[in-house]
Amino acid sequence: MRDKRMVLFGFVRGAAAIALALAVGTIFIFLSSDEPFTALKYLLIGPFVSFHGGVTAFNTQNFYQVLAAMIPTIFTGLAVCVMFSANQFNLAAEGCVLVGGFVGALVGIYVNMATGWHAVICVLAATVVCGLIMLIPSILKVKLGASEMVTSLMLNFVLLYIVLHFLNYHFADRSKGATMTYPFLDSAKISSIVPGNSKLTWGFVIALVISFVIWVFMYRTRWGYAIRMIGINESFSLYSGMNVGGTIVLSSVIGGMLSGMGGSLEVLGRYNTFVWRELPGYGWTGVTIAILAKNNPGLVPLAAFFLAYLNKGCQLMSTHSDVPSEMIDIIQAAIFLFFAAEQFLSGYRQKLVVKTTREELMKAESLKATEGE
Amino acid sequence: MEANEFVVRMEKITKIYPNGIAANRDVDFAIRKGEIHALIGENGAGKSTLMKILFGLEQPTDGTIYLNDERVTLSSPLEAISKGIGMVHQHFMLVPSLTVAENIVLGMAPTKGGLFIDYKEAVRLTREYSEKYNLFVEPDARVADIAVGMKQKVEILKALVRGAQVLILDEPTAVLTTQETVELFQELKNLKEQGFTIVFISHKLKEIKELTDRITIMRAGRSVGVYDTDTISEQEISRLMVGRDVVLRMDKPESVPGERVLCVEDLHYINEWDKKMLDGISFSVRQGEIVGIAGVEGNGQRELVDILFGLKVPDSGDAMIDGQSLIGLPQARIRTLGVSYVPEDRMTFGVAQTANIQENMVSDRFSQKRFNKGPLFNMKSLYDESDKLIMDYAVLCKSRSQEVGMLSGGNIQKVVVAREFSSDPILIIADQPTRGIDVGATELIRNKLVELSRAGAAVLLVSADLNEVMELSDNLIVMYNGQIAGYFDDGQWDDVMMGEYMLGLKRQSDEEIRRACHA
To answer: SS3 of B17, please?
Structure first.
């Protein structure tokens, strides 16, 4: 009975957080807009439905764009899931996406191989490099006890400026007005799986497959098990005889690999040259996704879809109405707040616990009485 | 007796924790104005819970509290403080990087213009109270730099500055040196003369006899009596404290001890407050026997067990399993030597609360070949293993995928024990294996312990439950003050005698104690 109530509580809490966040968003829309209903229409159903020329129809291209936007965030979401599962507040997924994109781009430009394997090599190179990068914060944590949150956060900027340095001084295409690399070879590009300009590439399929693989890793292998147990209770894991330090490093390296993979798939799928000049922000989105998915890799695509949908809705809303697109930040922040706040609805939870305990005590008492104690 | 003499009256206090443990059952507790009142009882007897309720840290499930005959609800420490109740915790609640004066005014600091802390005023206030109550502290010293005794004075001053009339001291002498204890007693007597009321929680009979006016003795969540200190002997207190509610009889087959499995040699350990916790402990545990360690909590048992399971490193001495030293080994190695461990703190070391039963059952063996197929888990063998353990140990649950934290205390302990007992251990260290759990689970765990020892395992049983050590042990060690106070191998022991050794009233000769080594 306890279990059912708690599971139900989880759903109620999740739904309430999203509903409240949207409600907060709606309040802001009504405050800031002269045409709130148009705005809401685009926000909520815009990504699905096209209103072009007064005809309402399913909007395929918009929908593909929503799916395409999920590619990098599924990867960072998974990366953060794996690291958070080990109770590591490692935020370097952000920097790893950037480095992954850059390394993928370089291999795509300078390694000349005209086969289908080129793209694979690009992505693998990015994956390996970013896995190695994550050794830095995790080994510092395990060996010296340095807070991985601080080191990884700082590491993002170190990585950003290293990439900018190499981009500016070594790999920039001087014939262009803006700072960018030479174009990737065609063999390195990740091709689309649908017609049109939506950038919905094979990366999306890979993202879904990897989500499943990571779910299997976390729930069906000894390493994933150790990661989860350490995250739940490090003392317990240590005492059970697990290699706590090694597992923490492992979880971070996997987080780095996933971020690097996501970054390279995004860059090689969406652009023709490497153009990022600042942190792309997918790592932060990954944190939101991991929290929404409660660190369950299986739920990451769902959470990524929710955010991508919301993002697209906000974008449409700002194009078609007078509401600024910054609204999405308010709504995202609100969701984040409600989910991250452990105490949210805790009074309700406590009531459930007390109720269940009382019932169990009564049952135990009556059991005792019938036994004639 | 006139009711209005009592500054605090707690009536029929019952406290049931959400995990189903009943820490207090219909406890009546009353303190007269201006007395020093001792609250004594074994660990887990419910003293701390009762005092936490009085200090507003816990809410009673049932019962009423009267302060000066006025019925009150104390929903937070803030409220308790505002009603004149102060508590000095065993572990100090001070900010080490701030000065004494800053700590004392923390949260109620005098300000200049309502914005900046008036540090001079804080120092003045500290001096004033310090002189008024003869509690000498150095207002400008950083708390990190001062001695334990002074930290305690800072804690007491903190309470007094906040207007406490009733002071609760939770085992104040546990961390003090003898000299500091003498000083503290003088100060407390002084406070009493100035009209303060003091609740003094302790295990130490001599101190209680010396300091207090009246005693409330608690056992197993109930109050077993209130006495004037000078009308009751130490022996009698010890009997009431550890006396047995139900005489438990275990029918266990005769033990046939074999080779020595665990050898502990002259262990010394000094804790971070420079207190000698282990002072030359030597004993051994042989195959097929249960060696019990009895003693009042805080006499070195905790440190001994931590050292044996690699959580602490002793200052000197050795501990060996089958001739191999385990000092400094990681837990994984100690486990492969064949040691399993039922931890006292099952929520921290025993289980991962939000993981399910199956996951908790295999935490020590999940990487073994039989549970893996290549890189993947062999889920079927994992499920079979946990289902078998759930059956064998009668874990009451809906399924193996139920969250462990949702089980009752007894069933959580069954999960721990099932895992620890099923790994073919040659040595089982069971630390308070049945504390706070129901009768059924207790019986099952005790039977399993006997069963395993008779099958050849060496068992070291540490328990504050005297009943348990006395009935289960083949041989019995009593620890007092970091030393072995007595070793008994004749099965001829009773609670009165144990109480005397546990509370330091008696001690065996060195020769008698040396027998514990079976050398």
So the answer is: coil
pLDDT of B247 above 60: no
For the stretch B163-212, pLDDT in tens is 889 999 888 877 676 677 888 888 889 889 888 999 998 877 778 888 89
pLDDT at A152: 95
Strand order in the sheet with B290-294: B339-342, B427-431, B458-462, B290-294, B475-480, B483-488
Asked if the Cβ–Cβ distance from B343 to A239 is below 8 Å, we say yes
- Considering only CB atoms, B351 lies closest to which of A3, A220, A236, namely A236
Q: Which CATH number fits domain B256-338+429-439+450-519: 3.30.230.10, 3.40.50.300, 1.10.10.10, 3.20.20.70?
A: 3.40.50.300
For residue A238, list chain B residues with Cβ-Cβ distance below 8 A.
331
pLDDT band at B429 (very low <50, low <70, confident <90, very high): very high
CATH of residue A271's domain is 1.10.3470
CA distance B443 to B410: 11
> What is the full DSSP assignment across B56-95?
TSS--SEEEEEETTEEE---SHHHHHHTTEEEE-SS----
Triad A124, A130, A136: Cα angle to 5°: 150
Q: What pLDDT is attached to residue B237?
A: 83
Query: Distance (Å, rounded) from C-alpha B157 to C-alpha B104?
Result: 7
Q: Would residue A141 count as lying in a domain?
A: yes
Interface A-B: count of C-beta contacts within 8 A: 77
Instruction: Tell me the residues of A at the B interface, defined by beta carbons under 8 Å apart.
Output: 2-3, 6, 216, 220-222, 225-226, 228-229, 232-233, 235-243, 353-354, 357, 360-361
Instruction: Give the best residue of A4, A142, A233 to mutate against chain B (max B CB count within 10 A).
Output: A233
- Stronger pLDDT, A290 or B150, i.e. the higher one: A290
Ordered strands of the B276-286 beta sheet: B276-286, B260-270, B316-321, B324-325
Residue in B348, B351, B403 nearest the CB of A3: B403
Hey, what are A363's tokens?
């049952």
Q: In chain A, how many domains are there?
A: 1
Domain coverage including residue A158: 66-309
Choose the mutation target among A221, A239, A367 for the interface with B, i.e. most B CBs under 10 Å: A239
Residue with tokens 């007395």: B35
Give me the percent of chain B exceeding a pLDDT of 70. 94
The answer on pLDDT for B244 being more than 60 is no
Question: Does residue A362 lie within any of the structural domains?
Answer: no
Instruction: Determine, for residues B377 and A229 on separate chains, whether the beta-carbon distance falls below 8 Å.
Output: no
Over 80: is that where the pLDDT of A337 sits? Answer: no
B221 alpha carbon, distance to own chain's centre: 14
- Residue A20: pLDDT band (50, 70, 90) is confident
Does the beta-carbon distance from A243 to B332 stay under 8 Å? yes
pLDDT digits (tens, 9 = 90+) for A225-275: 999 999 999 999 999 999 999 999 999 999 999 999 999 999 999 999 999
The answer for B 343-372 residues in CB contact with A (under 8 A) is 343, 348-355, 359, 363-364, 366-367, 371-372
Q: Which residue of B has its CA nearest to A213?
A: B376
Question: Looking at residue A189, what DSSP letter applies?
Answer: S
Whether the per-residue pLDDT at B125 is higher than 80: the answer is yes
Nearest CA of chain B to the CA of A25: how many Å?
33
Interface probe, candidates B14, B311, B346, B367, chain A, greatest A C-beta count within 10 A: B367
CATH assignment of B3-242? 3.40.50.300
Query: With 50 as the cut, is the pLDDT of residue A1 above it?
Result: no
- Helix (H) or strand (E) holding B218, with range, is strand B214-219
Min CA distance, B12 vs chain A (Å)? 19
**Tell me, what's the ipTM?**
0.80
Facing residue for A228 by CB, picked from B330, B355, B398: B355
Q: What is the pLDDT of residue A92?
A: 95
